[in-house]
């Protein structure tokens, strides 16, 4: 996700996206163990997106 896209989200949308990304990360871990993941970089990208959303959520709540 781009910074511009993230900044436009509401708190509810941020929480929904975090939940979705956590589920994706869970699935990527299983795929990695089974050797089915095509792009290991997706794991890192997903973690970064979760961190970006959590950071923005903290800023909006302050």
Radius of gyration: 13 Å
**In CATH terms, what is the fold-level topology?**
Helix Hairpins
Average pLDDT across residues?
90
Number of domains: 1
State which percent range the strand residues make up: under 5%
CATH architecture title: Orthogonal Bundle
Give the class from helix and strand content and strand pairing: mainly alpha
N→C terminal distance: 23 Å
* Sheet with most strands: none
- The number of helical runs is 3
Written description of the protein model:
- The protein is mainly α and 62 residues long.
- It has a single domain (10-61), classed as Helix Hairpins.
- The chain is built from 3 helices and no strands.
- It has helices at 3-7, 11-34, 41-61.
- The two termini are 23 Å apart.
- The relative contact order is 0.20.
- The mean pLDDT is 90.
How is the secondary structure organized here?
Blueprint: H1 3-7, H2 11-34, H3 41-61
Helix pairs in contact: 2-3
List keywords for this structure.
mainly alpha, 62 residues, Helix Hairpins, 3 helices
Short description:
This protein is mainly α. 81% of the residues lie in helices and 0% in strands.
């Amino acid at each position: 996700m781009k910074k511009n896209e993230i900044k436009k989200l509401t708190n509810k949308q941020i929480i929904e996206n975090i939940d979705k990304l956590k589920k994706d990360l869970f699935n990527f871990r299983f795929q990695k163990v089974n050797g089915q993941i095509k792009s290991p970089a997706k794991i890192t990208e997903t973690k970064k997106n979760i961190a970006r959303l959590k950071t923005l959520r903290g800023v909006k709540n302050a």
